[in-house]
Amino acid sequence: MKVKMNVQTAYHGDLLRAGKEYEIDEETAERWIASRLAEEVPETSEDE
After folding, report:
1. CB-based contact 30:40 (threshold 8 Å)
2. Could you give the CA distance from residue 14 to residue 25 in angstroms, rounded to a whole number?
3. Which of 11, 16, 24, 37 would staple 32 via disulfide (CB 3.0–4.6 Å)?
4. Is residue 7 within 8 Å of 35, Cβ to Cβ?
5. How does DSSP classify residue 19?
């Protein structure tokens, strides 16, 4: 699942910066969205 971070955090040894979009597993993404650490990014077609 793709999310846009609201905060800066470390995840699996990587630094995820606020305001940037990242692909992370769905379970973690749902927890972060519920905690307002991140926002879900709508899926778009890669073919465009």
Report:
1. no
2. 14
3. 37
4. no
5. T
Calpha distance 47→28 (Å, rounded): 27
Q: 17-48 pLDDT, tens per residue? A: 999 999 999 999 999 999 999 999 997 766 45
Q: Output the pLDDT for position 8.
A: 97
How far is Cα 47 from Cα 37, in angstroms, rounded to an integer? Answer: 29
Encode burial over 13-40: b for 16+ CB neighbours within 10 A, e otherwise: eeebeeeeebebeeeebeebeeeebbee
Q: Which residues contact 25 (CB under 8 A, 6 or more apart)?
A: 1
